[in-house]
Amino acid sequence: MRQxxxxxxxxxxxxxxxxxxxxxxxxxxxxxxxTARLLSAPTMLLGGALVVVLTLRSVLAVSxxxxxx
Length: 69
Fold this sequence. Notes:
Layout: H1 3-27, H2 33-63
Helix pairs in contact: 1-2
């Protein structure tokens, strides 16, 4: 993975998590809280999974097993 790609994916993960909170907050005006959580769950899970993958990738890069290009 190139360093530029890693940075772009990190920004995308942050953006997904931010969008998830915005979706949950704005939809609570229209629907109940439990439904708002269900609406924001897909973006939260995708952003969280991306954070986990990037964390594992950075641990591999720091340990020298698979460095960034």
